[in-house]
Write a structure and sequence with these properties.
- The protein is of the alpha+beta class and 165 residues long.
- The protein has one domain: Beta Barrel (Lipocalin), CATH 2.40.128.
- It contains three helices and ten strands.
- The strands form two sheets. Strands 1, 2, 3, 4, 5, 6, 7 and 8 form an eight-stranded antiparallel beta sheet that branches. Strands 9-10 form a two-stranded antiparallel sheet.
- Strand 1 (49-51) and strand 2 form a beta hairpin.
């Protein structure tokens, strides 16, 4: 079966091109400025909409739909993401996705004492950097972005997450 390595290589090339095409479409606007980021919103772990990140993921990822915002000023989709382990431990992050450039940023993390802790020197990172960005990439692809633009509305994001689109 000599064709199997060919398809593996073809698949790897296509996955690489997906990131390259996204980035090429997104010629960065040199005048773009991020707005003052709103404080992390309240969230409800009981109302999360879960979505698949990877078949081998040891964590279950979900977004609180009430936390999703699309900024008209800077086109960033901001949300609260919750990663839950099999034992029930939660890692909660306040993040943003910049669809135009294929990047995401973690603004804050929720601590065990029930308070948000802002990330010092938070920076935009590529959605295609690997394991640490996989959840954001899947959220962008599944719901938050229409290619290099943010989804048309929060309701559109919620509908996609619920499998209605």
């Amino acid at each position: 079966m000599k064709s199997k390595p060919f398809f593996v290589i073809l698949g790897a090339v296509l996955i690489g091109l997906t990131g390259a095409v996204w980035a090429q479409r997104a010629v960065d606007n040199p005048d773009w400025k991020e707005v003052d980021v709103p404080p992390p919103p309240a969230f409800d772990s009981n109302k999360l909409i879960a979505f698949d990140v990877s078949p081998n993921a040891s964590l279950v990822y979900g977004v609180d739909p009430a936390s999703i915002r699309i900024s008209n000023s800077d086109s960033v989709v901001r949300y609260v993401m919750v990663a839950t382990s099999a034992s029930g431990a939660k890692n909660v992050m306040y993040e943003g996705i910049r669809c135009a450039t294929g990047e995401f940023k973690t603004y804050a993390r929720y601590s065990s004492n029930g308070r948000w802790r802002m990330v010092a020197n938070a920076e935009w990172r590529s959605l295609f950097d690997g394991a640490s960005s996989r959840h954001a990439l899947q959220f962008a692809k599944a719901a938050a972005c229409d290619n290099a633009a943010p989804a048309s509305s929060v309701q559109a994001i919620v509908s996609r997450l619920n499998g209605q689109n």
